[in-house]
Give the backbone structure.
Amino acid sequence: MPDQSTPLFGYRKHWAECLGPAPWLPMSKTEMEQLGWDSCDIIIVSGDGYVDHPSFGMAVIGRVLEAQGFRVGMIAQPDWQSAEPFTALGRPNLFFGVTAGNMDSMINHYTADRKRRNDDAYTPGNIGGKRPDRAVTVYSQRLKEAYRDAPIIVGGIEASLRRIAHYDYWSDRVKRSVLLDSRADLLVFGNAERAIVDIAHRLADGESVGELTDIRGTAFVTRHPPANRTLINSTSVDEPGRIEAHPNPYEGMEPEPCAEGASEGSGEPDAAPVRLMASSKQDTHAIRLPSAEAVSEDPVLYAHASRVFHKETNPHNALPLIQAHGDREVWLNPPPIPLETDELDWVFELPYQRLPHPSYGDADVPAMEMIQHSVNIMRGCFGGCTFCSITEHEGRIIQSRSEASVLREVERIRDTSPAFTGVISDLGGPTANMWRIACKDKETEAACRKLSCVYPGICKNLNTDHTPLINLYRKARQTEGVKKVLIASGLRYDLAVESPEYVRELVTHHVGGYLKIAPEHTESGPLSKMMKPGMGSYDRFAEMFERFSREAGKKQYLIPYFIAAHPGTTDEDMMHLALWLKQHRFRADQVQTFYPSPMATATAMYHTGMNPLQRVKRGSQSLSTVKKLSQRRLHKAFLRYHDPDNWPLLRKALKQMGRRDLIGNGAKHLIPSRQPPKRHRVVKPGSGSFRTQHTGEHRGKGRRR
């Protein structure tokens, strides 16, 4: 499988290019007729309302395919009770594309405590219930009812995170790949532009969907693995006792130049990572994971499979993966090659309307309101946080837009948005400050298998220069008609402190009174399972933030995010976090409880009680996990130690923990010894303190969990 891919604008355009771009991708036969279309080449079915904006995945894929010369239709949030709504645009000439939307439908529908949500920020009017649970599966099954022989390509974050057998939090069991339940012909994972464009052109050229088995970033079901592949068996783990050396499947290949000889978080020697960029192993070998049935029955094998999976995510050296599901096999090709800067510019500068479809009238789409005047400047994240889905979906290699492209979008917002008041609400992406930051050496980057570039410390091969980003900020705020440029995306403060000049620029010009950052915890136990830095980095950043705020003559506040009930967290850890919060006079209005999203490393910890950041062995030390609702409530209560409603629960817990010394009315106490009369139980910030704002689970642009 070659490393290089055809550039997105390197294909010969399909014939319908002569029709030009549609004002809106049509959602009805009437709109098709107005465009002069007799049919669609591709129809996208989405769980989100149709917002023609580059922060909405279905709009991006639709506009990318349209720019390739295809006629693309949109069926947004169809009524799934019957197949009829799925026939609104007829049968496409090439394929149906199916996505649950910008969020996994189960995370969209349920809180971390499995309570049903009543709203949906991606639906006009913020109305809940406009998409089904497990939308990819339901939509695909309805399409099969309507058009039995029409090819179905599933994608988006829900399909991407469920591409192999995975633990499903809502059913509390391991579910098989969504490919099998949906009966889709092909699954596209990660950033889908390269794969979907290749699929469309090859189908248009007469290939069948069953022949498309060599496209990066895709998965499919087969009865038999390719005969020309050597399968590396990774279906078992070491047993206690004498361990026989396994043959090295990478014999003769160079070791990774930046391996430094240790696995993440373990402190023990690990198998030498390998260089595959200059070899043909991606074309000749594949790794066999434990079967879906095996990982379902054996938590140790599940943790082992999770570790192997996450080690095979660098597109330049990852091998294909294969996993048996009964008598069928799910085959995963290596991830897509990241987009080059000119390709990413092209994607973001397509003719988006940057508005919801006119058929929604005056109904607001809350997610759109959040990002209407923001600019996405990059993709990917090399942070490797174990609870986060960005790496599994977008990858670790940062894809950056050019400065000129970003500034053109700022000007386009200024010139075309009637609601623009002069404020750009964000310049960012998954993170605020990884734009143009990458490995110093492309060859080293292509060989690396580390899960994070910044944990347990910043890699010596990482370029941490923030100068280009500082210059971008300055030019953006100097754009005529722009009064303020805010930075709202998640900030990697451990990276930011490497550039005090960047922190000064950020604090002086781009903070709107409050800046939210995510230390996630204060204690080393949970932090090591999250792959997050210790509080030393937070303290350094906080000192800079306060100093530069004073120099700028501004009263600004730092708002830290924290997670309750993450794997590896004990009751004592939460108690110490609560004491830290009280010492620093923080009071959280809302708190975030760990949410086991499909396929995340932290989810494997939650399900198995093992740590896949280390080698997985039989008899490995178990990991503390917080599964009982009563304990999850306790951990949340520690984060809201100041709420009188939580004091009875905390008193009981502190007594059981032998910490009665924290109950009383003095400054050293965490909670009072007595409950106040009910009529006086009003929580107030108190002198000198302020409330931290939280959204529960992150439900929009930026950090997705």
Observations:
- Residues 432 and 489 are 5 Å apart (CA to CA).
- The chain has two domains: 15-225+323-332, 373-643+683-692.
- Residues 535-551 form the longest helix (17 residues).
